[in-house]
């Protein structure tokens, strides 16, 4: 075996691994929200009762913000990716969340949807997540989503 076929085999193996990881996620049709461990994040003033309309982690200390983004990325993968796409790149089923406005105006719309989901004409387009995941998880996801933002 030459060096180049060895490399090709390696690349093919890596591609297969990546592909099966993606299809496992996409095939994951479980609609039960997956609990998010937010204990590493500071508690919010209003607890889970009073929902904020602006991301409390946006201007937090860098290490808190980084932790929020890290927790948010994983929470997104478990709860949102099956509709909104891996890495927030939508495959067309649901809006592409990379285009959400940055800052307070985007926060308000984000948290409205996160809390209540979206239903019309008796059909649930997006389930509500507010009560099951809690607002710390919501803002952690929002913090990560802002790192994926694009205008293009
Ligand atoms: C079952 C599929 C599904 C899941 C799971 C889901 N969403 Fe959605 N989401 C949708 C659909 C469909 C819409 C568009 C609803 C509409 O326009 O009425 C939407 C809309 C949104 C919007 C508004 C986007 C815009 O541009 O108006 C946000 C923000 C959002 N979702 C966040 C999330 C987050 C965060 C999660 C995970 C915690 C999540 N969604 C999980 C289907 C889903």
CATH topology of the largest domain: Cytochrome Bc1 Complex, Chain D, domain 2
How many helices does DSSP assign?
Answer: 6
**Rg for CA atoms:** 18 Å
Described by the principal axes of the CA atoms, the overall outline is globular
Question: TL;DR of this structure?
Answer:
Residues 15-29 have low confidence and may be disordered. It is built from 6 helices and 2 strands. Helix content is 51%, strand content 5%.
How would you describe this structure to a colleague?
There is one protein chain. The chain has 152 residues and is mainly alpha-helical. The chain folds into 2 domains: 1-30; 32-147, Cytochrome c-like domain (Cytochrome Bc1 Complex, Chain D, domain 2), CATH 1.10.760. It has 6 helices and 2 strands. A two-stranded antiparallel ribbon has the order 1-2. The N and C termini lie far apart (45 Å). The structure holds heme C (HEC).
């Amino acid at each position: 075996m030459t060096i180049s076929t060895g490399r090709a085999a390696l690349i093919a193996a890596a591609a297969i691994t990546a592909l099966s990881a993606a299809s496992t996620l996409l095939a994951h049709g479980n609609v039960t929200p997956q609990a998010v461990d937010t204990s590493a994040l500071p508690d919010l003033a209003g607890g889970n009762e009073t929902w904020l309309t602006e991301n409390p982690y946006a201007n937090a200390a860098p290490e808190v913000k980084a932790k929020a983004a890290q927790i948010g990325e994983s929470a997104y993968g478990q709860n949102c990716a099956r509709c909104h796409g891996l890495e927030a790149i939508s495959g067309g089923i649901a809006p592409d969340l990379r285009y959400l406005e940055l800052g307070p105006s985007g926060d308000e719309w984000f948290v409205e949807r996160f809390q209540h989901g979206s239903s019309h004409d008796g059909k649930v387009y997006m389930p509500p997540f507010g009560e099951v995941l809690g607002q710390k998880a919501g803002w952690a996801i929002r913090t990560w989503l802002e790192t994926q933002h694009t205008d293009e």
